[in-house]
Amino acid sequence: MPFPAPAYGRDTLADVLPALARSLGVPEFAGASPDLPLPAARRVCFVLVDGMGELLLAARSGHTSTMRRWRSDGLHRVLTAGFPTTTATSMGLLGTGLAPGGHGLVGYEVLDPDRDVLLNELAWDGAVDPRRWQPHTTVFQRVAAAGVDVVRVAPPHFDGSGLTEAALRGGRFVGTPERLAARVDAAVAAVRSAPHQFTYLYWGRLDHTGHGSGVDSGEWTAELERVDEALAELARRLPAGTLLVVTADHGMVDVHAPQRLDLAAEPGLLAGVRHAGGEPRTVQLYTEPGAAQQVAATWRERLGARAEVLLRAEAVAAGWFGPVEDRVSARIGDVLAVMRDDIAVVNSARMRPETLRLIGQHGALSDAERLVPLFVVPC
């Protein structure tokens, strides 16, 4: 049975910021995200916890007293990420309110057609102008233009980065140390700084811990406990009337070394392939002219039922990327291999050793990767 396409325009990450703009009373968002009703507010604090998937969170509910209480109080619902379930794509959904085929951040490593090289959309490349790569006005820009004070709280090196400029530009940036308490302090100060205010807070260590130690590890659970405690502190300190909203960009699954297929040991899988991009859970293959059908057949035969292998046109027709703009189409792989089982495809010939050691993975369309929580907490 094929993976379901994300229901763009209904309960996805693309709906969150437009709904928050509507709750702040920004006129151009008055009809936005009708399936995501949020209470009106003069101040909003929006928190993104990287890697906090819904199924992972539900399985660790005994370690999250704050979020467990919010869940029992009816302050919780479930959203879906877009495709692929990777940070750059999700940031595009959040920042623009558009599906991936509109914002154009269509994976971890994707083709830059103008140069015929892969672009890592997290690390970026100085040769690519992020505002041309993603030209749509962001939600933050539109909210700030309406007179709302917009503040983004994140690590200092995010300021001016390619991904930030592409997906999350707008308002002012406050860089803080890699300490969750410092991030909370900065968010509280930002929310209190103006009567009509929208603060965004990013926390990435849970994702890093999942990648390095695995989501079944004690280290990941301990970090989740710290996140839960920080959210309780944030909710306690926010001024009355603030709307606190918490979500994530994707979930994660553990894939250990025996479950990985190494392209360096499988040269037949690279026959007819110019570039192998994407990520280990969703490989995007850019083929030689006329080779896409044969490449797809080779990958289907090798992976069998463990993956769904589609041509670009099939993935677009299935709605995985939403409506695809002409400028975006060539960035998507000619062939896509999306993992079903807890397996991953790596390439030891070009990946760094530290990347090959990562346990937690995401990018595919399993429920563990695509479902994320949404908490809406009036303070």
UniProtKB/TrEMBL annotation:
InterPro entries: Alkaline_phosphatase_core_sf, Phosphodiest/P_Trfase
Protein origin, superkingdom: Bacteria
Signal peptide range: none
GO molecular function, one term: hydrolase activity
SUPFAM superfamilies, sorted: Alkaline phosphatase-like (SSF53649)
Record's protein name: Putative AlkP superfamily pyrophosphatase or phosphodiesterase
